[in-house]
Design a protein that fits this description.
Layout lengths: L5 E6 L2 E6 L2 E5 L7 E4 L4 E4 L15 E3 L11 H7 L5 E4 H7 L3 E4 L4 E5 L5 E8 L8 H4 L3 E7 L7 E4 L7 H9 L2 E7 L15 H10 L4 E5 L11 H10 L14 E3 L11 E3 L7
Parallel strand pairs: 3-6, 6-7, 7-8, 12-13, 13-14
Antiparallel strand pairs: 1-2, 1-15, 2-3, 4-5, 9-10, 10-11, 11-12, 15-16
Helix pairs in contact: 5-6
Amino acid sequence: MMNPPRISQIGGPTVLIEIGGLRLLTDPTFDPPGEYRLPHVVLRKVAGPALAAKQIGPIDAVLLSHDQHADNLDHSGREFLATAARVFTTRAAASRLGGHVVGLSPWEPVSVTAPDGGELEIVATPARHGPAGIEPLSGDVVGFVLTMKNDQNVRSIYITGDTVWYEGIAEVARRFDVGLVLLFAGSAQTRGPFHLTMDTNDAIEAAHAFPNATIVPVHTDSWAHLTQSAQDLTRAFEALGLAHRLNVIEPGGTWTWRFDADQASASDRSRSPVHAP
């Protein structure tokens, strides 16, 4: 049996996942605070990452939900892509980014070989970055499901990417035995009185759709357009008797996932900074 996976919160949507000897990074954002002018909105970053890009260490794969929004891929994040062994993202993003970036369609799998010879399967999953009909404005987004094919003791990890709750997420729940959900939350609002990422209601829907999974919220900090915090999620889960399902990792913190479902509530969390190998 392999060592338990470790999840390190860098800040915003950027999370380091260590699994099966592989080091994966979601949506790299390493810029200091500042403004980003998009065609129709201005995004304002209000806090930098807990770790600088040079402190992350070698990355086997970047899992990039999309490239068109600075809060998921900022200037330093774009530079970081060149240092990763692999980058997986949407087909549209791959065509824009070029180089060694690989585009995936929803439900398309790809495999990465772990140092011990094991196989990590990465499956792209559907995502909808706002209410129905938002796609022409938001562009394509994907999530990812990670499964160690050689170790049946480890249940899948689901990274939602920027999405709201909708039928596509429910289909992920039907297709995979998910034990850990990295849920992109924050209830982002930029264009009007509707949210572009999961709010507390969406997160609770997800918790019920994945009844045996630990929910780890990400992308709830560092940007002005995020209207709900991890503390808001905590209060909502507590009010509905779901507090034991939620695990908040503060930026700079690392949590070890004891993937045995019976031990999930006893998982250890370390507030110490992440160190590159």
